[in-house]
Amino acid sequence: MLNPELKALLSISKIGPQKDLKQVLNKILKIVGNTMKAHSGSIMLLNKETNELEMVATFGLPDDYIQRIYDKGVPITTSPSGVVLRTGHYYLVPNVFKEPKDKPWLDLARELGFSAQIFMPMKQKKEIIGLLNIYMTNPRKFKESEIAFLTIAASQAAAVIENTRLYIKIFKKKLELKQEVNEHKETEKALQKNQKVLNNILSSSPIGIGLVVDRKLSWANESMIRIFGVKRKEDYIGRNAGILYASEKEYKRVGEIIYKNLKDKVIQTDAKFKRKDGSLFEGHIMISFLDSSNPIKGAVATISDISWRKQTERALRKSKEKFRKLAEKVPVAIFIYKGAKIYYANPAAEAITGYKQKELLTMNFWDFIHPDFQDLVRKRGFARQQGQKVPPRYEVKILTKSGEEHWLDFGASTTEFEGELAVLGVCRDITERKRIDQSKDEFISIASHQLRTPLTIMDCYSQMLLSKDKYKLNDKQEKEYLEEIYNANQRLTELVKALLNVSRIDLGTFLIELKPTKIKKVADGILKEFLPEIKNKKLKIEKNYDRNIPIIRADQKLIQMVFQNLLSNAIKYTPEKGKISLIIKKQKPNLLIKVSDTGYGISKNQQSKIFTKFFRADNIKIKEADGTGLGLYIVKAAIEEMGGKIWFESEKGKGTTFYITLPLKRTKRAKDRRIFH
């Protein structure tokens, strides 16, 4: 059965993004507050523009206090909030009333009725985005498990905030895009309607019609005369038809088009015309020759003023360009495809797939879909284009140009493209979210499984000790049971530390601190800690250190953890009277560390998994039931973050040798990086 902290973390992990960020954060805060049995609590987010903290969620605080104190935001000062934002670490106050009297929160604590408080930073990667604050009724010393729980809860809350903000942003962009598309459709409908009206007028009224014989306008109806602003027909009848055009050059251009298409029954083109008063307008001319073999005989010409249509087309092009600019700026991939072929892909599509836009326009949409999902996407794509009802949104996996697997949140709808039905696909890369979700699931799974054994032992022996009269325990038995409880507690503590380290690696919340470190001194100190186990198993230890091993820049706590893990494994998995070798020597430009044993070894078919999370070799699990499978994963991450490398050689039944290299010198002082402070 999960303990309350893990149960609470599991509940928080199940909270998905919603439109109302405050509602989501209030739900998280209520879960944390109830789990901690807190007096009250709050979540405050950092406003980068005003450099103030804004309260967005509360638990157990009176409404008048919220409005009075935080209505205008909280300036970042030397208060606990300011300290947390400046240092990046949580801030504890076990007893408010034992703090110096000049502290600003004493009056607040008396007013609200709390005695202890903790301020926990919420981070996205390395950046602090806000604070998770918990207030307790009575003075208390916060336990490590409570601090760990609040640390993870704050990280989960930060992740939920990031997902919710992204969800809200995409939702707003989607609404804007939908509005643009609707406006585009309405414009097209209006254009089509006006075109129908115009066609009806032209078919029912002989407007804008003239007869041209031997290149001269010999007749024109009233509508033609009206279009050109002519008061007397005599001013135009009998004149060269060129008088109708904006310029001699335009007249010749239209003439060339006509003579190139003499075989056509009707020749039509757009042209620029000139009215009697000299003003220009855009028109459309349709010409039908009385005898195509002899154009001079005459032709019927119909001219209509299409200035309004040209203006509409320009407006439509402007609207399309606006849509294109919007699509090119949104952080999600947008595709338009008809049948299977892609006709449009925005820059974000390039970033997600790895293909250039020109390459995408030569591909089918499902060419980059993972084989496991191609059939699904193909069927739904064709069904959607045929007007069938299909889910508008689902998750798919793709293969990028470089062969990497990425997860996409894929949403699709039908749209009109170049007069035909097409599919508008909107994709968001959710690979990182999937990885975090998987990491959370693994964390909860292993935690629930691994924590059960030590907790069961502690529960069993505690009950027997509490009922010692019933079981008639003597002093020796009581001592044995207390030792079992102590050992189980130690295993539980180490497991929680390992799980928290793995969680922080995945979330990128730990930093390394490089300082001058004496590797030989660290190694000897760890060996000394293991002397009782070494003597108990009668193991032979061989040390081979180079002389004058220099001091190197490394994180001493991490180096200690590396030696503890490798030597602990070597001692634990080497049979009695076996041999363990520790070699430290210079191998410029690096320092080489070798830890060898004559233990059980690792099967070849499992060696590729040795540095993965939660992995333990089959032969090791048979020999030693206890273990988390997290140690080597943490060691590898630590070594690589310090600029080193780690690898191994192993043969089942003969033993294993681990090799580590660390830089002897650093030309440039390394910056603090993620994992392990």
Instruction: Kindly identify the CATH topology of the largest domain.
Output: Beta-Lactamase
Poorly predicted sequence stretches spanning 5 or more consecutive residues:
201-206, 669-677
- Gyration radius, in Å: 39 Å
> Roughly how much helix do the residues carry, as a percent range?
40-55%
Proportion of residues in extended strands: 15-25%
Structural class: alpha+beta
- Helical run tally: 20
At the first level of CATH, the class of the largest domain is Alpha Beta
Q: Which CATH architecture of the largest domain would you pick?
A: 2-Layer Sandwich
CATH superfamily of the largest domain: GAF domain
The total number of structural domains is: 5
**Overall number of strands:** 23
Terminal CA distance: 32 Å
Overall shape: it is elongated
Overall pLDDT score: 81
Q: Strand order across the biggest sheet?
A: 3-2-1-6-5-4
Tell me the major beta sheet: 6 strands, antiparallel
Q: In words, what does this structure look like?
A:
- With 677 residues, the chain is an alpha+beta fold.
- The strands form five sheets. Strands 3-2-1-6-5-4 form a six-stranded antiparallel beta sheet. A five-stranded antiparallel beta sheet has the order 8-7-11-10-9, with helices on both faces. A five-stranded antiparallel beta sheet has the order 13-12-16-15-14.
- The longest helix is centred in the N-terminal third of the chain and has 61 residues, at 144-204.
- It contains 20 helices and 23 strands.
- Strand 14 (393-399) and strand 15 form a beta hairpin.
- It is 45% helix and 24% strand.
